Amino acid sequence: MKHIALAMAAGFMLASPAFASDHGHDSHGKTEAHAPVGDDVIAAQRAALAKNTKGAGFGPQSPRDIDSAAGNNARVFSAAPAHTAMNLCNIHFHKNAEHKGGEFTTYAGNGDGHGYLSGFKYNGQLSEAELAPVSHEICPSAHGSLYPGDTIEVHYVHSTADITPGPTLGSCLSESIGNPQLRVETQVYVLVNDKKAADFGKLTAISGKGKGAQATGIPSNTGTPVQYTGSTTGPGYNEKGSPYQVSWSVRPQVAKVNIDSVGKWCKGNVFNEDHAHGVRNLVQNPDLLSAIK
């Protein structure tokens, strides 16, 4: 059983860039220029995804447009329990929202074709003060830093396994349960240069470091979450299906967060998260989407 659980954990980490490191630690502070790719590149990735999943039995995929309820994928799996009845196992975030809908429908562009500089941005307007530049780098990586006005999508990942919070999706598995139910509570934030804005440390606070930990700072005032069945995400799945089943809960409204508090979190947390992850292309193929009920 131990070998099976470890093998599945390794599979999660290798197959799901959303939960695994996507750059070396020596890349901090270095910014690489990535020219945006053309629409033909994204179209080719979508075509490859359709070809590689057709008739293969994949379940519904993520991310998606939460304002569109349509979906033809009939693969059924039981929805995970409420997150309060599960164990928090991981928290990480993506630069720009992976999902589309609510207050984040502004397309960021095609990006570099590998998940960076793409996704969706906050639709609202910010003041000059909120957009004032900061004098230091925030969560730097090989793909750049974060800046006031940037949008991030935070994933609070929960598991039915008896685990403790930690790095990568491997922390959501245990030796005794290799196929736990997974739920991702999702909140989109916009970064502002305002010390009175929400504190990211409080938004990602956990009730304890041991088993049974809960995320105590998930916002409850950002609209009724859209619930649907999907998969793990990340740009590694742009051309192939994710085999992992996830119950999603995506809040439609955006909250403002103090950018300095995000930078502080990146410098030290139990999840070893120090940068923003890339995004998977929005899944549009109805055969890969569940119907939102």
TrEMBL record:
Q: Which InterPro entries match?
A: CA_dom_sf, Delta_CA
What's the protein called, per UniProt? Answer: Cadmium carbonic anhydrase repeat-containing protein
> In the record, which residues are listed under signal peptide?
1-20
Which controlled-vocabulary keywords does the entry list? Signal
Q: Which residues form a coiled coil?
A: none
The protein's matches in Pfam families, at most eight in alphabetical order, are given as: CA_like
